[in-house]
Amino acid sequence: MFNVDAANYALSRQADGFDDFLSHDWRTSRFSKLCTLLVVYNSRAALLAAFLACPLIALGRTVGALPNDRPSSCLVYVVHLFVLCCWQRLRSILRPPIMVFLDKLCIAQSPEQAELKEKGILGLAAFLNHSKRLVVLWSPRYFSRLWCAYEIAAFLTDHNKHKQILIMPVHAGIAILLAYFFSSWMASSLLIVLGLLRHGALGVQLGQDNIWTVALGAMLWVVVPATLVGVPFSTLSVRMANHLHRVPKQLKTFDVQSAACFCCANDHKHPDTGEEIPCDRKLVYRKLEEWYGRPTDTDKEHLQRFNSLVHHRLGRAVLRQMPHAVPTAPFLCMLGAAPMPWLADSIERMLWRIQVDEDACDRCELAYYVWAHVFLEWAFVVTMIFETGLLAVTLSTVAARMFPNIRHTWRLGLLVFTLFVVPGAVLTGAFFVLLWTADTAWPPTIVFVLALLLGLCFLRPTLTNHRLAGAIEELEDAADVTPTATPQPSFSTPDADHGSIVRMPSGVSVWSGGFRI
């Protein structure tokens, strides 16, 4: 964990200001942070790319450039995942990159760069004041780390009420990706299996005698992989909800003097080389006294003043932003990509129908086909994906609050998985049975409307909960604590280096990290 390679600092360049300031706990998994940052910065662009790819895939199937079968529509997932992972590079071709401050690369860490490190620590507030937004990758140990507390303290010195803070549970990225893979597998498998069961309407020709064999194989094909992905998703959601349930107590008992610091924990010696490490705590306390101290203070009143600020102002902001284990806004962006193969297939079927009915002698029949066999199917699948996803998040939050001390979280995860899968399976089965057997489109339409109303019931409380979980929220001004000093340095014009990485004049730098919105 303690990698202080001096070459890391060379990755930075100069900049006038920052779009985002990343605050994180160093001990948390880098993979978790990567997944969360991909979801935060790239999910919207990936969703748009998947949407634009649907008509192209449908056209390719129609003209014969792609195999004219339903699995070809699943190529939209390739487009979505490519943009999700690479949008930070693609964006630089179209727009300027997002400039992000990352302390591990932007503040010198090696013992040989002790002077630069001191400048970086002392100038942290100035750089936060020139950041448009603070992005907190929250973990259960976040508020117990001195560096994290210091970054929060520096951010709270700014009197600009329009400053924004985004709080993301650091493991939310993995949970959202698991939900995406679960929903994508369910949507694509349902698309392919239903094509097979239509007796040649779309896909492989099957005889009546093979119906039950195909149905049994289809259930195994769909259910087993979905369970292997869905149960970990629900378990992780319950675990995160359980951690968030303890946040109020963490904030209420926060004490900067008890916050852990790597240098103090290792007796100010490098764990590998044994070299002396400068004490970060002394520098942090020095800045806290400068910001929150008063001439009449006799002891450590400035530290208590900062503790009070965290208890009240930060506590309100955190609790309003984190009502659910999985932040809703990026969660919906990722879920929105899951039914995209259905959209591509629907467009292809409309094009196919138009080609078949070139005379267009019966427009009513064409309109009925589009409604009953194209739009209604796609709209129902989209509704069910969002409904089951929101239901899973809601159940995870409720389960964690009802059983906060449960030892084996996977049991609650399995229960949550069952509770959100069974209603979805019942509604889906009823919808498609009625769609195939009813003489009119009214029975499946009624099931669709019922599913839509249930989905709105789960979505409405989330949207009306002040702000979306994980969405940007303005911090309230602290009337009880007023910082005594907020440094405002001047910045020079940035060096041109493809606009990706920047360094501050005082020795502290900003790193784009390759992540851009």
Secondary structure elements and their pairing?
Layout: E1 18-24, H1 30-63, H2 75-94, E2 100-102, H3 103-106, H4 114-122, H5 124-129, E3 131-138, H6 146-156, E4 164-169, H7 172-197, H8 211-245, H9 247-252, H10 262-265, H11 280-292, H12 301-321, H13 328-337, H14 340-356, H15 363-402, H16 409-437, H17 442-463, E5 473-474, E6 501-503, E7 509-511
Parallel strand pairs: 1-2, 1-3, 3-4
Antiparallel strand pairs: 4-5, 6-7
Helix pairs in contact: 1-2, 1-7, 1-13, 1-14, 6-11, 7-8, 7-13, 8-15, 8-16, 11-12, 13-15, 14-15, 15-16, 15-17, 16-17
What's the gist of this structure?
Keywords: Membrane, Transmembrane, Transmembrane helix. The chain is of the alpha/beta class and 517 residues long. It has one domain (6-511).
Mean pLDDT: 77
**Order of helix and strand elements from N to C terminus:** EHHEHHHEHEHHHHHHHHHHHEEE
Per DSSP, the total helix count is: 17
Biggest pleated-sheet summary? 5 strands, mixed
Note poorly predicted spans.
201-209, 466-481, 486-517
Protein name: GIP protein
Transmembrane segments: 34-58, 70-90, 170-194, 214-236, 325-344, 378-400, 412-435, 441-459
Keywords: Membrane, Transmembrane, Transmembrane helix
Task: Please provide a written account of the structure.
The chain crosses the membrane at residues 34-58, 70-90, 170-194, 214-236, 325-344, 378-400, 412-435, 441-459. It comes from Symbiodinium necroappetens. InterPro entries: Toll_tir_struct_dom_sf. By secondary structure, the protein is of the alpha/beta class. It has one domain (6-511). The protein is built from 17 helices and 7 strands. The protein has a 5-stranded mixed beta sheet. A two-stranded antiparallel ribbon has the order 6-7. The longest helix has 40 residues, at 363-402. The radius of gyration is 27 Å and the shape is elongated. 43% of the residues are buried.
